[in-house]
Amino acid sequence: MDKDRIVGSAKVIKGSVKEAVGRAVGDAKLETEGKADKVEGKVQNAVGGLKDTIRGE
């Protein structure tokens, strides 16, 4: 498993937490940052998946 997949998954989780906390406390900036982290994590996870596919893992 490529390290990008691991880091990407962690960013998705972090983003979900930030988004939920931002929504709970009414902090639109924190909620937006969380959504951005989730997108970034999903992209990084996809890149890691492509690397795994290329390597044949």
Structure report:
The protein contains two helices and no strands. It starts with a helix and ends with a helix. It has one domain. It is mainly alpha-helical. This is CsbD family protein. InterPro entries: CsbD, UPF0337_stress_rsp, YjbJ_sf. Belongs to the UPF0337 (CsbD) family.
Topology:
Layout lengths: L2 H23 L2 H28 L2
Main features:
single chain; mainly alpha; rod-shaped; CsbD family protein; YjbJ_sf; CsbD; UPF0337_stress_rsp
Instruction: Give a short account of the largest sheet.
Output: none
Rg over CA atoms, rounded to whole Å, is 13 Å
Number of strand segments: 0
Note the run of SSEs as H and E: HH
Helix percentage: over 70%
Low-confidence blocks of residues: none
* β-sheet strand percentage: under 5%
Q: Work out the count of structural domains.
A: 1
The general outline is rod-shaped
Pfam family, one: CsbD
Family: Belongs to the UPF0337 (CsbD) family.
Domain CsbD-like: 4-55
Protein name: CsbD family protein
